[in-house]
Amino acid sequence: ESGVIPYAKMGYWDASYAVKTTDVLALFRITPQPGVDPVEAAAAVAGESSTATWTVVWTDLLTACDRYRAKAYRVDPVPNTTDQFFAFIAYECDLFEEGSLANLTASIIGNVFGFKAVSALRLEDMRIPHSYLKTFQGPATGIIVERERLNKYGIPLLGATVKPKLGLSGKNYGRVVYEGLKGGLDFLKDDENINSQPFMRWRERFLYCMEGINRASSATGEVKGSYLNITAGTMEEVYKRAEYAKSVGSVIVMIDLVMGYTAIQSAAIWSRENDMLLHLHRAGNSTYARQKNHGINFRVICKWMRMSGVDHIHAGTVVGKLEGDPLMI
After folding, report:
1. Which segments constitute the Ribulose bisphosphate carboxylase large subunit C-terminal domain (predicted)?
2. Which domain holds residue 24?
3. How many domains does the chain have?
4. Other C-beta atoms lying within 10 Å of the C-beta of residue 321
5. How far is it, in rounded angstroms, from Cα 221 to Cα 198?
6. CB-hemisphere CA count at 13 Å for 175?
């Protein structure tokens, strides 16, 4: 087509590029369209996730494009495949706003997954430089702090999810929490889609859950808990539910991945400021993590969520009804 210039010729491919310690590195699994050279496909991904369009423009002269271009510097065939390749791409750290997962992902995954040069694309891994990581708050607590709060050491922490996850009244929900904790569980948790429905409003659930927790703790002499889901339609409502959970004595709240990256970061900041543990349910994850040739590897999601500041994440299981890779978990 007239005016179209191959991305590799516009500077987005550089096999001799020396990776810097301050570079953000991304590993993509690319499946080029028939007839598209893997190097050109890798360069296209690098270009469209940084500064490029389909040709050069005079406004390129107004900035240091050579510096800000992402560089695809290596392409390797994926073992045991005939049409898939690993593309290694380096990004200048200044391309990304400090402490903003929304901005990081807008570049890395924002536009390239619908790109015509590839029939499938998967972000397999990322290396985030220390200088950029420090602009995120990260998780406020770790397993040591959680064990201190539960007063449980040297044994696995045992938890479960309340079932049925929809339809229970608040009183019966609290009864399930009590029976589970009294029976030996360390904690229970809300499921991803239990928020504030007509059969049980969130305030009612929180109150009955805390009643069950306190009764079970008194009966067993052990510290018990339950993850209260504060996911809501607006951040104002999320904060309202979080404040109420804290006021009734909960030390942990949970949110869903489908809330979005900015909402997750905001909830994590609130949790740190209020000395609350924050659990993340990976609801929606498999829409882009399950397919092995297209989407985002769950490994990357975990890194992003740790950067955001959640204390732990729902990671799936190697048994049961849902898909799970033992190596990933």
Report:
1. 142-327
2. 7-133
3. 2
4. 6
5. 35
6. 6
